[in-house]
Design a protein that fits this description.
This protein is of the alpha/beta class. It has two domains: 2-177 and 227-257, NAD(P)-binding Rossmann-like Domain (Rossmann fold); 194-224 and 259-299 and 310-329, Alpha-Beta Complex (UDP-galactose 4-epimerase, domain 1). The chain is built from eleven helices and 13 strands. The protein has a seven-stranded parallel sheet with strand order 3-2-1-4-5-6-11, with helices on both faces. Strands 7-10 form a two-stranded parallel sheet. α1 (10-21) runs parallel beside α2 (37-46), α1 (10-21) crosses α8 and α7 (194-201) packs across α11 (312-329). The longest helix has 21 residues, at 90-110. It is globular. It starts with a strand and ends with a helix. Bound molecules: uridine-5'-diphosphate-4-deoxy-4-fluoro-alpha-D-galactose. Uridine-5'-diphosphate-4-deoxy-4-fluoro-alpha-D-galactose binds at residues 81, 83, 121-123, 145, 174, 192-194, 197, 210-212, 223, 225, 263, 286, 289, 293.
Length: 330
């Protein structure tokens, strides 16, 4: 059985679908603080998915799951992921993302479970010294969120040496889109991400979409990011599990498309794909936004055989369809 922490959240739920399709049996562990029970119910309609509600900050919660099920490997998503909030409230991030993961790792060691795939982030690199960013780029996070994830990466290296616990750290770039059948999708409250914010602004009482700064040193003045489709990203987790089973080695990989798109490029792509004129306002820069960040993903391609199959248009189309559904759920 595979334990998926944070399986009721955005990337976790898409990965659960991928793993169900690969024939895996899943138990989801989620506090539902940010995850949604409706997402768990949608997953339970698709396949054999157990659900255990609990919080990683409470080691007894996770210990109970390991004593109840025979867990072969863990795919670990459960975390807080708002960069701005982490600056205001670092304790929340270190307690949950770092200390919570330590509880999980200690429980794994106790129950002799030695494989974990970990949701890390390109935020561990901080302001890039060069792009595209490869895995050898120095890791110097500029937010407690990034630091909370980097600390876990470091702990995992030590746990491999000391206890033989093998980990794959997947450093995501910007994740976008949703399940093409809209069974699950991106459901953040509040929503801070670019594509859902553009999409939301086209619905009834949606707020006007704002571009945070057009005075960056980039060709059109707006920030450049690497938008990887969530279904493609989910597949990388399956491949990482396969690698752990076959190679029994720790490793780390960037997960991005290697294509940098500016905010304005994404905005125009949304207008085109949705065939709508969308209102937009240019406002001041958002604190902490790096100018340009995109991946060198050569390592994941050559080592895991991963490649992105979906386009940014696919991500926009599915994000819009999901938003239509979400409007009826809210
Ligand atoms: N942006 C806007 N308007 C919006 C939302 C975003 O102009 O309403 C811009 C941002 O300023 C940025 C770009 O769109 O230039 C992308 O912003 P997102 O918030 O979608 O994503 P980030 O690049 O800030 O964040 C992502 C992940 C984080 C991770 C971070 C690392 O969501 O978890 O990359 O840089 F930490």
């Amino acid at each position: 059985m595979i334990l998926v922490t944070g399986g009721a959240g955005y990337i976790g739920s898409h990965t659960v679908i991928n793993l169900i399709n690969a024939g895996e049996k899943i138990v989801i562990f989620d506090s539902l603080e940010n995850g949604h029970i409706e997402i768990v119910q949608a997953l339970q309609k698709i396949g054999d998915v157990k659900f255990e509600k609990g919080d990683l900050r409470n080691i007894d919660d996770i210990d109970k799951v390991f004593s109840k099920y025979d867990i072969e490997a863990v795919v670990h998503f459960a975390a807080f992921a708002l960069v701005g909030e982490s600056v205001e409230n670092p304790a929340k991030y270190y307690r949950n993302n770092t200390f919570g993961t330590l509880n999980l790792l200690d429980t794994m060691v106790k129950y002799n479970c030695k494989k974990i795939v970990f949701s890390s982030t390109c935020a561990t690199y901080g302001n890039p010294q060069y792009v595209p960013v490869d895995e050898k780029h120095p890791q110097a996070p500029i937010s407690p969120y990034g630091t909370s994830k980097l600390m876990v990466e470091m702990i995992m290296k030590d746990y491999d040496k000391a206890y033989g616990l093998k980990s794959i750290k997947l450093r995501y770039f910007n994740v976008a889109g949703c399940d093409k059948n809209c069974r699950v999708g991106e459901w953040h409250e509040p929503e801070t991400h670019l594509i859902p914010n553009i999409v939301k602004s086209t619905f009834g009482e949606g707020k006007v979409f704002k571009i945070f700064g057009d005075d960056y040193n980039t060709p059109d003045g707006t920030c450049i990011r690497d938008y990887v489709n969530v279904e493609d990203l989910a597949e990388a987790h399956r491949l990482a599990l396969e690698y752990l089973r076959k190679e029994n080695k720790s490793n780390e990989f960037n997960l991005g498309t290697e294509q940098g798109d500016s905010v304005k490029t994404i905005f125009k792509a949304c207008e085109k794909v949705l065939d709508k004129k969308i209102e937009v306002e240019i406002t001041a820069r958002r604190d902490g936004d790096a100018e340009a960040l995109y991946a060198n993903a050569n390592k994941v391609k050559t080592t895991l055989g991963w490649k992105p199959l979906r386009t940014i248009e696919d991500s926009i189309t599915t994000a819009y369809k999901w938003e239509e559904k979400l409007q009826t759920l809210l």
